[in-house]
Amino acid sequence: MRIILSNQKIRVIDQGPASVETILSGLGINTLEMIVVRNGTLIPEDTVVFADDEIRVIRISHGG
Amino acid sequence: MGRKKGLSGIPVCSCCNEPAVVYHRHSRRSLCSTHFTSDVEERVFLAMEKNQMVRAGDRIAVALSGGKDSTALLLLLSRHLPKWEDVSLVAITVDEGIRGYRDETIRAAERVASHAGVEHSIISFRDLFSDNLDTLLEGREEQACTVCGILRNKALTQGAKNSGSTKIATGHNLDDEAQSVLMNVLRGDLPRLVRNSALETSGCFLPRIKPLAEISEKEVASYLFVNGMFLDLPECPYTRYALRADVRSMLSGLEQRNPGTMLRLVESKKKIEKYLGGAPVSAPLRRCRQCSDPCSGDLCQVCMLRQSLGR
Is residue B36 situated within a structural domain? Predict the structure, then answer.
């Protein structure tokens, strides 16, 4: 699975099927601080993603 | 997580069979983009109605930084505007002068105001205080959020008054509100903890309303994404100096492990307000001896800050 992180770095992990929350928790990422997109569509953190998926993690910026 | 999932691994909406875009942890509901958008809008306008945030004849100055919260706020209010009688909106952007950050968000603010068809004005620190924030902070960057907060508040109020507004609407979300409660407790600042800026009856301040106060930060970002208005904008370079950054990180972890933590924290503030029953917890309002603005001491915060900055 390819994960495009908010700093544009790409992580490739050999995992899946697993929930987005499980995958991101394993990378030390709090899902409340991110939105996750697959194929241009927003997906909830309890979505099951698969080994051949690519997901993009977008950090929610704070403040104004 | 045993909710019903479609072939793509995406849970289906709790209200229909469309793929969900969000999972609301506290209520354990999954919602598709249509039901999520309706849900956010209904909760915002219910809160506005319950707290009587808008009245006929109001001109509302929307504090529009161009970031996600104020963008969502302006979109929501402008969509709802035709349902209000004799209410108008104006967007006010404060340009503090933060290199590598503010220019991009100002362009975003201009685009969203134009998209929403709302009058927009920009007021700058340079015009009001003769210098931009970067210059004012040279050698004291760790005080950035305190300095900026005081001056930005003054600038926003000035911009709202210039536009003939009766109220100021800000995009504070549930996370912001929970963080403020905890920060005020950590500082031991009871007057600020129980201050309700929406109930300004002294005639000294423009009342402030926070229509997004019951919507989480993630919901705000998700609302913008599913409505095609999400922008991955830079974050203010000074945020790393703020106490808020530590509190945000701690609360976010607590909320992840104990859904509902932020909501309970905000509700605890309301309970304290109720128990106080309007009893005064701070000195009565006075007028600043330099600028005549309302304040609690001899000088207002802006004049005190100007003195300490030697301006």
Answer: no
Lowest-pLDDT range, B2-11, B77-86, B180-189, B283-292?
Answer: B2-11
| Separation between Cα atoms, residue B57 and residue B84, nearest integer Å | 9
pLDDT averaged over every residue in chain B: 90
Q: Are residues B108 and B146 in the same domain?
A: yes
Q: How many domains does chain B have?
A: 3
Residues B80-124: tens digit of each pLDDT: 888 888 999 999 999 999 998 899 999 999 999 999 999 999 999
User: Do B305 and B220 sit in the same domain of this protein?
Assistant: no
Min CA distance, A42 vs chain B (Å)?
5
Same-domain status, B138 and B158: yes
Phi, psi of B269 (to 5 degrees): -65, -40
Q: Which residues of B touch A47 (CB under 8 A)?
A: 5, 8-11
Q: Do B184 and B207 fall within a single domain?
A: yes
Q: How far is CA B165 from CA B88, B129, B173, in A?
A: 9, 22, 22
What is the structure's pLDDT at B52? 92
User: Which chain A residue has its CA at the smallest distance from B173's CA?
Assistant: A63
Q: What is the pLDDT of residue B199?
A: 65
B278 touches chain A (CB under 8 A): no
Which top CATH class is A2-59?
Answer: alpha beta
Do B295 and B251 sit in the same domain of this protein? no
Evaluate whether residue B138 is within a structural domain. Answer: yes
pLDDT digits (tens, 9 = 90+) for B205-257: 899 999 999 999 999 999 999 999 998 888 888 887 778 888 999 999 999 99
Contacts of B262 (CB under 8 A, 6+ apart): B174, B175, B177, B178, B216, B251, B255
Cα(B124)–Cα(B113) distance, integer angstroms: 18
The answer on B295 and B158 residing in a single domain is no
B88 and B166 Cβ atoms separated by less than 8 Å: no
